[in-house]
Amino acid sequence: MANNNKIIQWITKPRKITLSQKIFFVQQLGVMLKSGISLSVALKTLAEQTTSKTFKTILVDLQQGVEKGNLLSLGLEKYQKIFGELFINMVKAGEASGKLEDVLKELFVQMKKDHEIIAKVKGAMIYPSIVMAMMVIIGILMLIYVIPTISGVFKELNVALPLATRILIFSSEFVLKYGIFVLIGLAVLIIIFNRFVATPGGKKQFHSFLIKTPVAGSIIKKVNLARFCRTLSSLLKTDIPIVQSFEITSRVLGNALYQEALLIAKEKIKKGISIKESLKPHLKLFPPVVLQMIAVGEETGALDDILEESAIFYEDDVAQTMENLPSIIEPLLMVVLGIGVGGMAVAIIMPIYSLSQQI
Asked: Which long-range contacts (CB under 8 A, 24 or more apart) does 325-331 make?
């Protein structure tokens, strides 16, 4: 019995099951159920198709549970860290309403849009990240291998060096002597920072700082608003109560400020206050246009559809921003690169020029 518990614990640990694999699973499961294939057979078929051993083990376990008469949502609860609360609650709602295939379709759209936003953000950050990394690597290599040789020549010539050259030589000597200690210090700072951010207070302060930054702050707001509207819309469409929907959505959003705002709003909604009024104190996070759309949705009874439209707007806005981001960042990178290369070149050329003037 103890061995069985250990096996279950090992399986239920978060593994490398990608969002793409889960999207494919949801899509195919929904299609199979809609075509009349039983849930047990559908799970068995998908288990045979998947290339991930971990995912295969999970699907087989889910299939065996369904064959015993258990609900799919009950089996998914063992793998909450893999599938998430949103996924499980929507499946549970679909089972309760008898519209599991419709819920799976909604989940597919939700996860696909989420995947697209993440992919857009990651894709936009690849180019500037590579450029910055190469700048740092080339700069360090210059300080370690090139500058010591040049500084040796200058010392032999015994000439007065300009300030820029002295700073460059000092930087090179510092890196050579204390580079290992700098690396250790950076590693310690990163560990301390990660532990600080892992605390509720630290996470909130860091996210508050990020949301106030000029470019990144706007992107973070748009991403969180898109996920808020999309998630809440999906939950409401599956007839999950509004209070529970706010609680689940708060856990789906990545920013601590948005999470806190939704939990505070949830408590107000419990008391009968409208969604618009509950979110109104957080205008820095939820723009007036979003609150107005929510108010219209509440009045017309079409909140889920209006939230979906708002989600599409912000998702398109994020996509457009991510497409334009490289062209916005590129000039800035070129300026930084030019200053770095130009400064190093001037520091090296100035003593040579001074020496040629003396000859």
From this structure: 325/124, 325/215, 325/219, 326/124, 326/127, 326/128, 328/215, 329/127, 329/128, 330/127
Q: Are residues 131 and 106 in the same domain?
A: no
Q: Is residue 3 part of a domain?
A: no
| Tokens coding 355 | 């020496």
| 72 and 144 assigned to the same domain | no
Q: Which domain holds residue 177?
A: 114-359
pTM: 0.78
Last residue of a domain, one of 63, 97, 113: 113
Q: What is the pLDDT of residues 156-214, one digit of tens each?
A: 767 677 888 888 888 888 888 888 998 999 999 999 999 999 898 999 999 999 999 88
**With contact defined as beta carbons under 8 Å apart, do 262 and 250 qualify?**
yes
Distances (CA, A) of 95 to 73, 76, 302, 310, 324: 8, 13, 23, 28, 43
Give dist(CA 261, CA 253) in Å, integer: 11
